[in-house]
């Protein structure tokens, strides 16, 4: 599984990088940036799923 981020949907609420700072960061405008581009291990998958479920814009999708 991988993290897919739709930056056009991101409004910069920061929930993803607050919940999973090892997976997400933000750019100079506050838009989320994915730090892990490869396959997620089990711990990363749990944290990515938590971040995705807390994204108000549904900008984060976990999948292949």
Automatic annotation (TrEMBL):
Quote the SUPFAM superfamilies the UniProt record gives: 4Fe-4S ferredoxins
Record keywords, A-Z: Electron transport, Iron, Iron-sulfur, Metal-binding, Transport
Task: List, alphabetically, the Pfam families matched.
Answer: Fer4_15 (PF13459)
Gene Ontology MF term list? iron-sulfur cluster binding; metal ion binding
Can you name this protein?
Unannotated protein
Q: What is the lineage of its organism?
A: unclassified sequences, metagenomes, ecological metagenomes
């Amino acid at each position: 599984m991988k993290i897919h981020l739709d930056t056009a949907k991101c409004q910069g609420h920061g929930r993803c990088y607050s919940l999973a700072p090892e997976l997400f960061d933000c750019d100079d405008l506050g838009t989320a940036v994915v730090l892990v581009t490869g396959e997620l291990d089990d711990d990363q998958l749990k944290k990515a799923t938590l971040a995705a479920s807390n994204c108000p814009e549904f900008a984060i999708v976990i999948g292949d």
